[in-house]
Design a protein that fits this description.
single chain, 352 residues, mainly alpha, Na+/H+ antiporter like fold, two-stranded antiparallel sheet, 16 helices, 2 strands, transmembrane, AEC family transporter, transmembrane helix, membrane
Length: 352
């Protein structure tokens, strides 16, 4: 395998290059606008709410408006299974990373390391590079993430039992609803009433399920497409605005936050790479290159906003959580192109 050729192909792939540069430039734009007070302290929070309640649900749902085939279905099932199993593994493995710390601090760091910003940081990047298929895999992968984030992480950080409010958050979240609705509609489409629709991409008339609005109701699909398109730029602006709120100097002086950042954006994705290679080579749970890339990008994300909120809300190392969130975000921006290159190299081996 010619590594030089793989690198050249990766950095001449305009989808990859433009996604990386867009991420960095728009985050920097949000940072500058916040520093200049063009964005207020509340503006980043407003953008976040728009992304989480409107744009990402539209992106998740639209990604399932696609034909179904056995290969993609198998990949989706494998991604779902891995997305549940890997969090169980990480819950135990991340505890080992922080054995030298007092139990309370170690528990917080373990939770922050296990749960990254897959929804807010990961999905927009995956969608920008790998399109609807990547967004679909990302939405499926996030099912396990949300199950453990709103159960295990909540209980661990609060010291309380699960409450009705958290269960409601878990299942009535707009993104979760859109994901499950889209996933169900995608799976059952061969068994639903079929109608004739013209596919402009192939210039053919095809038979599709009546609810495939990407072909049967463009007047409805297009508005959702525009809303989905807002997810990436608005998320990156909000990230930049949030970074503009925190003093880098104080965060950079915290050695624990640097160690955490290395574990979050280097060690955790590396663990996933090793597991995915082993599972694919052994044919136990094989994934294709797009699924591999999706999972690695999702796991190379910085601190999850919800996990950080738990730390702050329950007064569990709140300052550490804020510092860790800042440094891991910077670390994720730096490491993301590297992980994309790693995925390209692994893809060139023929394993995936």
């Amino acid at each position: 395998m010619n590594f030089g050729k793989v690198l050249a192909e990766t950095f001449t792939n305009m989808n990859i290059v433009s996604a990386i540069t867009s991420t960095i430039f728009i985050i920097l734009l949000g940072f500058v606008l916040r520093k200049k007070n063009i964005f207020t302290a509340q503006f980043g929070k407003v953008l976040t709410k728009v992304v989480l309640s409107v744009s990402l649900p539209a992106l998740a749902f639209n990604s399932f408006m696609a034909p179904i085939d056995q290969k993609t279905l198998r990949q989706g099932i494998n991604v779902l299974i891995f997305g549940i199993v890997v969090y169980i593994i990480l819950i135990f493995v991340t505890k080992l990373m922080y054995l030298k710390y007092p139990k309370g601090r170690g528990d917080v760091l373990s939770v922050l390391t296990t749960f990254g910003s897959t929804t807010f940081f990961g999905i927009p990047i995956v969608a920008a590079i790998y399109g609807a298929k990547g967004a679909m895999y990302a939405s499926i992968f996030n099912i396990g993430y949300r199950i453990f984030l709103y159960s295990y992480a909540y209980i661990k950080m609060s010291g309380l039992e699960m409450d009705k409010k958290n269960i409601k958050q878990m299942f009535l979240n707009p993104i979760v609803i859109a994901t499950f609705l889209g996933l169900i509609l995608w799976i059952i489409q061969p068994y639903m009433p079929q109608v004739s629709a013209f596919n402009a991409a192939t210039n053919q008339t095809v038979q599709v399920a009546f609810y495939r609005i990407d072909l049967t109701a463009l007047w409805l699909f297009k508005p959702l497409t525009y809303l989905a398109g807002l997810a990436s730029p608005l998320a990156w602006l909000a990230i930049g605005s949030t970074l503009g709120e925190i003093t880098l100097k104080s965060a950079a002086s915290d050695k624990t936050s640097w160690y955490y950042t290395a574990m979050k954006v280097i060690a955790v994705p590396a663990i996933n790479v090793i597991l995915l290679v082993l599972l694919t080579v052994s044919h136990i749970l094989p994934v294709d290159k797009v699924a591999l890339a999706t999972i690695i990008i999702m796991m190379a994300t910085p601190t999850a906003a919800v996990a950080s909120s738990y730390a702050i809300g329950f007064d569990r190392e709140a300052v550490l959580a804020s510092n860790a969130s800042l440094l891991s975000t910077i670390g994720a921006v730096i490491m993301m192109p590297i992980w994309i290159v790693v995925v390209s190299i692994l893809g060139a081996t023929g394993i995936f």
